[in-house]
């Protein structure tokens, strides 16, 4: 089993990197605070993104349900239209008002009365 280089902290690597000036503890502290602040901001951003995705998912589900309800209503209304059209067609075959020729020629003042049974 080969051993890798000894574990070195991120701060130590930045100090040991070529071209870097040795940093003061104050600079190190500032860097740690900045990284912590960045980490917290990243967590907040991920949380916000997750919440937004959850909200969109809920809205999608709600719209799907509404769509389903509306499709069922359309189906019922189409069936009702079909039924009422059939009823009307059957009624037209035997309606005395529609069969009366006086409905089409306006000779009297009250053409409906002449078609009604006496």
Question: What features would you highlight for this structure?
Answer:
118 residues; 4 helices; rod-shaped; mainly alpha
Could you give the distance between the termini?
116 Å
Number of helices: 4
Order of helices and strands: HHHH
Gross morphology: rod-shaped
Helix content: over 70%
Mean model confidence by pLDDT: 81
**Major sheet attributes:** none
Unreliable stretches (pLDDT < 50, length at least 5) are none
By secondary-structure content and strand pairing, the structural class works out as mainly alpha
Region (Leucine-zipper): 56-84
Pfam families: bZIP_1
Domain bZIP: 28-91
Modified residues (Phosphoserine): 2, 24
Describe the overall structure:
With 118 residues, the protein is mainly alpha-helical. The protein has a domain at 25-100. It has four helices and no strands. It is rod-shaped. The N and C termini lie far apart (116 Å). The mean pLDDT is 81.
What order do the helices and strands come in, and which of them pair?
Blueprint (H helix, E strand, L loop, with lengths): L9 H7 L8 H70 L1 H4 L11 H5 L3
Could you give a quick summary of the protein structure above?
One of its GO terms (cellular component) is cytosol. The chain has 118 residues and is an all-alpha fold.
């Amino acid at each position: 089993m080969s051993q890798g280089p000894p574990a070195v902290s991120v701060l130590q690597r930045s100090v040991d990197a070529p071209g870097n000036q040795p940093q003061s503890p104050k600079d190190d502290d500032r860097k740690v605070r900045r990284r912590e602040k960045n980490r917290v901001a990243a967590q907040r951003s991920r949380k916000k993104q997750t919440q937004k995705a959850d909200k969109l998912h809920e809205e999608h589900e709600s719209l799907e349900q509404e769509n389903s309800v509306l499709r069922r209503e359309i189906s019922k209304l189409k069936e009702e239209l079909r039924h009422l059209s059939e009823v009307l067609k059957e009624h037209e075959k035997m309606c005395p008002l529609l069969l009366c020729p006086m409905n089409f020629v306006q000779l009297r003042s009250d053409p409906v009365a002449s078609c009604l049974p006496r």
